[in-house]
Amino acid sequence: MTDMTEQPLTPTTPAGASDSRADDVATDGLVSPAAVSAPPFTQAADDERLSSTPSSAPLSEDAASTVSYTELGPLGVERDGLGIKGYLSMRDEGVTYHRMKRFYCRCVGVNFMRFASRDAASTMVTALFSAEVQKVEAWDGKGLWHTYRHSFKLSFTTGVVFNVDADSEEDKRQWIEYIEMALKGTEAAVEKWSAHASVSADIMELTPGGLAFAEKKCSPPKFKNDMMCCHPTCHVRFDSTGKRQHHCRNCGGSVCSDHSSRFAMLRHFQANHPVRLCMGCYRAQRFVQWLAMLLQRLSIAQGGVEGVKKPTLSKAEEEEVDTLLTMFGDEAFGISDVIQVLHLHRHKSDEAYAHAVNKLLELSASNLADFEFFLPQLFHMWLTVDWTNNNIKAALLFRVMCHGTQLHIRLATAIYWLTRAAIDDSCGWGFGQSELYVPDYLYRKMSMCKLLMINVEMQISHGDWSFEIDKDLPASTEQAAIIKCFPEQSPA
Predict the structure, then answer these.
(1) pTM of the full predicted structure?
(2) Within 10 A of 273 (CB to CB), how many other CB atoms are there?
(3) Are 305 and 179 in contact (CB under 8 A)?
(4) Structural domains of the chain, with CATH
(5) Which of 81, 112, 316, 488 is the most exposed place for a label (fewest CB within 10 A)?
(6) Do 116 and 64 contact (CB within 8 A), yes or no?
(7) What DSSP state is assigned to residue 474?
């Protein structure tokens, strides 16, 4: 995956991850997993977010069903840089006689995910259910007791079938339209991968969704039953402290309750519900899913279909762009001026922001000293940008970072250590703090920073895109195999 959004190997997504998050270094399509930023949150969404309580373990589906329709709010379907998201009513276990419950769902390419709440959907790895869509069909909406007016049927590669009801006819149309488009794009991508199968034997090893193996059947690991927690910084012994021994369902390691509080679905083990993971495996699984989501957007693009159409500029946005272009025509306009423009326009038009980034890249060739001076500020802008609502801007700034690594080895080294520090912070190792107390907003930077790190290391060493297990991503054998397949499937 060479270009880079939760996400880029040169940005693209993954984002998160999830949320484009983007895709780039060499290609704009990869750098920005989105074509438009997600619409702003509504008041109903804000109310839900304030009323929800964060939890590292997934909420039970029963808990999700207790939230009333009124509290959730009549939110319509949203299209962001990665896919489509919104509320759908469905049953817990496919086609059954149980009543339907209302879930917040996301579909990124052919990967469908169901969450306990809208707020939980910002991190795709927290999905209560995740599967690869095989086809979408019509359904008459006739249940045992009710008739559902905006209904359709989803069939998954696992054999599960869900009868689904949308909130409105327009929502139904958008869901079906996007899923059909994703299926066509994925089919075209698979045809291209098949043409290269003789050169890269592992290119067809994964399913089109990128989260499971096509042929290989993986069995969950055997529990190791060690007497000490497997977390590298934890020395709890299970025979003397009274701590309960848990086991990671991905690596089989023995782990204490403090370092096994996170849950995720493991599609490579055909798990149909979230399972307990140790910190290292959870971090690796988030990275796997983030990259897979980015690859899904690229698959749609390979099919010759635009995942998200470029929006028509409003009159105010056109005036904003014209004003910037006039400013850029001034010969005295320098890099410091562009930096100021980037700050002032961080919540404005993506089109204007793109022109500002292009001007910055143009000036960097002749003003290397100024570019180097502002590099830490540019890195901080990229690190703190809200990928959920500004994934195009995040992708553009990712492009700036990757461009900097190509200008001079000194800049590449500086970016490397800035990224290294950000990763250490997100893992809880930078300043000796525990990973348990890393705030969510910082913890979520792991995937995007790791992707940038891979790009930077490639630029410095001029090596290849092969993935090697390291301290940041102590991936299991299956996870490492999945990550190694992604560069093969991404466009050249």
Answers:
(1) 0.74
(2) 12
(3) no
(4) 43-187 (2.30.29.30), 314-461 (no CATH)
(5) 316
(6) yes
(7) -
